[in-house]
Amino acid sequence: MSELFTVLPPGEAFAVLGRACSPIERSETVALEAAFGRVLAADVVARETLPAFARAMMDGYAVRAADTHGASEQSPAYLRVAGDVPTGVVPECAVGAREAVRIHTGAMLPPGADAVVMVEDTNLHPSTSPGQAEVEVLAAAACGENVLTVGEDVRSGAVAVPAGRRLRAADVGGLAALGITRVGVVARPRIAILSTGDEVVPASAVPGPAQVRDVNAGTVAAVVSQAGGVPVPRGIAPDDAAALERALREALADADAVVLSAGSSVSVRDLTADVVARLGAPGVLVHGLAIKPGKPTVLAVCDGTPVVGLPGNPASALVVAWRIVAPLVRLLGGERIEGDGFDARETSAVLDVPVQSRPGREDFVACALARDGEGVLHATPVFGSSSLIFTLVRADALIAVPLDRSGLAAGERVRVILP
Questions:
Q1: N or C: which end of the chain has fewer CB within 10 A?
Q2: Residues 197, 260: one domain?
């Protein structure tokens, strides 16, 4: 293959890859307390209506809203106190005309009431005679004010949490409110991770002359885990076509996707793409991304299994893992992917020094973040070769340079990705 391969913007490239593969079909049932961060395999339909009863949203007095019409501090409404409703009990009293019932936050609304007046908007006038206490209402209440109505949260039969949702803390709480203690989730995708290179040795080894430790296996495994997948280490293959093909076929047999990091030389990149092309149809879909760092990336699908060939340089491999591998893991894991798949946390910051770029590619520039005396967030580029992992170790985030920009000016507010 030629060095002059045709590159695609990362978003388009991921869309091409995504159309050629499908979420895995395996699922499992887990306890609710273990469901946080997992992807829901099927819609959860509410079996109950919540709230099941109308209840007060705050301490005060349950009233008929019409009886408070026009009430103010200058012209209060006076209502007879007909009882008290604590939380957790069914009211034994009702609210009649010109009456109020003392109520506590979360307590069931008594019959006849259609609003709650906050206790701060009232004055209680006790009486020595039973049943003659009176409350002075200093503000009018609208019908339904400070009241949670039946079904206001969710109705029985409605989809409470949709399939494809990565469960958040609020989702777990909602399922608990419905009494659901076990949920079906998509199994975690198994992602085989294969490193290549005659010069690469395991991180546990002492490198010999002209050798380097395997950085990419660890960084890619971390990205896979963070995205919800299960990293499956497959070791290191030499720069030999037969050995690489054998290692890739073994990895494909035991995983939902394969991620390999190849060397950065043209010959090694071509070797990787040629071998991947032989592994199954449709084969190589994309050879080259309009991104820096990370241009020499291969995206393929081989008989239904995605294969991502990352550059060998550690910073390049990690940026492409964030940009392509993470959304691929989420897609395989059943999560609904929108847009170009990039779902990193981000913020904005003022750029301290200019950054050069080239129109037509996405640039990601490592940066340090700091706030000035007025609390404004500033981004300072951390420049370094894509072959140096500590360029990213020293950085707090990545400055994202859009495809259509030739650079960013000092003082400009820029998009900052928080990996």
A1: N
A2: yes
